[in-house]
Amino acid sequence: MTDVDLASRLVGGSVVAASDESFGFKERLVDPAEPAFVPGTFDLRGEVVDGWETRRHAGRAGDWAIIRLGTPGRLRTIDVDTRFFSGNHPSGCAVDACVLARTDDPTDPAVAWTPILEPTVLKADSHNLLAVADRRRWTHLRLRLQSDGGVARLRAYGDVVPDPASWSDVTVEVSGLENGGRVEWCSDSFYSSATSLILPNRPHNMGDGWEARRRRDVGPDTHDAVIVSFAAPADLRRIEVDTSYFVFNASLEVSVLGSRSRPDREHGWGMVAFDVPVLPRTRLLADARQVFAVDVPDVAALRVQAYPDGGIARVRAIGVSTVDGLRMLQHNWEESS
C-alpha cells in the first residue's frame, strides 16, 4: 500500500506560516481533497484557485511556506503538486526540514533547518514527485520556492515514527495511522481506499470508508479482507468496527485474525500466517459503531475479513504495547534521530 501523507490535515498536519498568500490560502496545501479548478470564477482576490498562490515579483529570495507534520516521521517522497497552475507555477523549489517541539516557533531565525531536497525545477500542472534520501525523523518542513507562483498541494509521504513515551503504560489505538498503523494489503479497493479504515477521525459520509465491489461468487466463506500492521506488538483489549453511513451496503459479518509475525526481506505479507483468533465471525449492524472486548496477547498485525463484501468505515484495535514492543519503538525513535 502507499505511504502515509504525514502533512495531511487528516493526521493533524498544518501550514503554520508563509511569506505571502495574496491569491491562494496557504492552508490549502495540506487539504486531503484533490485540487479542483473552475475557470472564470473570480472573487476580490482574483481568479479563485484551489491551492497556495503568492503575488507576482517575489524577488530573488522567492516565497516560502512552513508545514508542521501531523505526526513525526521519516520521509520517502515529497509531491509538490502544481495541478491547474500552468502560467503561474513556480520555476522551482527546495525543501528543508527540522525537529521542533510543538510549542516552538518555526519562524524563529535560530531554527536549524536541514536541506532534504536540493533546488529542483518544477513542471507546470503536474505532480512533481521528489525522492528524499535522508532517513531521519522530522516534525516540520519548509517549502522554498525559487520564485513566486502557485502550488496546489504539498504531500509528504513516509512512515510514522511513534514516540515511545506516548505508548508507555497507556492503552493506545495501535492500528491507528497516527500511531504507526499501516494498511499493508486489501483484497479490493474498487470504490475507496482501505486506508480510510485507520484514519483518526470519525467518518463523515459513505465515501469516507472502505467499500469493495459487489461480489457475484458468494459462498459460505466468501469474503474481502484487509491487513493492518502495527508499529509494535501489543496486547489487544478492544476491537471496534464502525459501519457508519453504510446503511444498505455494509458488510454483513466480520472476523479478525492476528499475527505475531512480520514479513522477512524476501517475502511479503502474503507469506505471513494469521493464525491467532482475535474476533470470531460476528454479525454486524449497518450504520453503527460496534465495540467488542477481546483479550489477545502479543499481536503485531491484523487480518480483518468482511463477509461477503460491502463497506466498513473504520476498524480500531485498542491495546497496550508489549515489553518487546516498547523496546522496538525506542530503537526506532533513537535510530531516526
Automatic annotation (TrEMBL):
Entry's family note: Belongs to the allantoicase family.
Protein name stated in the entry: Probable allantoicase
Keyword presence, Transmembrane: no
Organism name: Mycolicibacterium mucogenicum DSM 44124
InterPro entries, per the entry: Allantoicase, Allantoicase_dom, Galactose-bd-like_sf
Domain Allantoicase span(s) in chain numbering: 12-160, 180-320
UniProt GO MF annotations: allantoicase activity
S-adenosyl-L-methionine found in the keyword field: no
Reaction equations catalysed: allantoate + H2O = (S)-ureidoglycolate + urea
Keyword annotations: Hydrolase, Purine metabolism
Lineage summary: Bacteria, Bacillati, Actinomycetota, Actinomycetes, Mycobacteriales
